[in-house]
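Please check this protein record:
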Amino acid sequence: MDFFLHLFIGFAVLAGVVCTWAIVYYFANPQPDNPDGKARITGSCGDTMEIALTFDGERVKETSHWTDGCAYSLNCVYAAACLAKDKTPDEILEIDERAIQEFIGGLPSDHIHCARLAHETLQAALEDFMRNQAGKAHGGTGRKREGGKKP
């Protein structure tokens, strides 16, 4: 009987820690309600990254990021989002894997793909922004229809 009680208490503590972490993570990383550009890409390693960009005029006003990957993936997607903040679309195009790696102080050779995935996700979010702007310029809302293809 003691074994099951200890097992239950251990499970309850673990569940409490996971729930607390999820709540803190959610409130520490707010997602913009209506981003101007957003992309979610899953890499060949299985990690998924998401970046959302909100513009104010010609510059990125707000960014948000998310990943379900390892610590290296989290660092890389964070770096990509930080590097895009206050930049114009042309300046964002100049952000590459090397800039992301330099921002975080380098990566082990077996995690270079994390910077590549962060770069691809950032560029896809920018592409989504540009597509939305082109749609607005042609009289549309610039927004994809519900159920449309995600980048």
About this structure: Strands lie at 37-42, 48-56, 59-67. The chain has a mean pLDDT of 86.
